[in-house]
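Slide 14.
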Amino acid sequence: MKKAGIIRCQQTEDICAGAMDFKVAGQGSLAFEKTGPVDVVGFVSCGGCPGKKAVMRAKMMVDKGAGVIAFASCISKGNPIDFACPHFENMKAAVENKLGSDIEILDHTH
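Slide 15: predicted structure.
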């Protein structure tokens, strides 16, 4: 089973426990259909706007065995506050640049 790390929006921590992220990751459904079920090794926030800690935190989860880094849907789709992160594309590009092509990046979770 692959291991995954999930990066979530710090702004939504008070209103979302991440239950759906864990559910779809464990089932290998929705965004995890390509990977199949994964073992979540980390569930961290981006560190707050503009997401500068996402790179360091993604690397930390890779060091713990993650072969997949998923940006939670709160970042890329704006769930549940209906406001997607305006820094998402830059954050994703920075994470991809740091981790290289060996790590699979998912744009959302559900």
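Speaker note: The longest strand covers residues 38-45.
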